[in-house]
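Weekly structure sync, notes
Attendees: PL (lead), two postdocs, one rotation student
Agenda item 3: pending single-chain targets
PL asked that the sequence for the first pending target be pasted directly into the notes so everyone works from the same version. It is reproduced below exactly as submitted, 112 residues in total.
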Amino acid sequence: MKKTLLSLVALVGLFAGSAVAQKQEVTDDYRRSSIALIMMDEENMPFRDIIRAAFLDAPLPDKYNDHNVDHRLFDPARLTITEVDMEAYREAVNLGLNESGSGQAPPNSVSS
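Predicted structure, written out during the meeting:
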């Protein structure tokens, strides 16, 4: 009986010691991921005002570093593609650098 009780006490002591050894202190000094959010804001988007308000008012998760820029809304209709842009695009297509490999000009392009 004494041996069983002594073995049980020793076993409990080993488990308690390993549990204490495995406990680690949690700190906030870790590398966080960074995030920057930008929204495509088109005039004909359904529920545009509601979506814009929700996007702009949404809190950033606290596990991320905030790398947002001042202008978080982007309207592609306001983008002007110049002839210089088109020449750079054509050069990229000729080098096989566009994703589709089709050699097609992008939408809203200036014809040459």
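Discussion points:
- The chain has a mean pLDDT of 75.
- The longest helix spans residues 2-22.
Action: rotation student to compare against the earlier draft before next sync.
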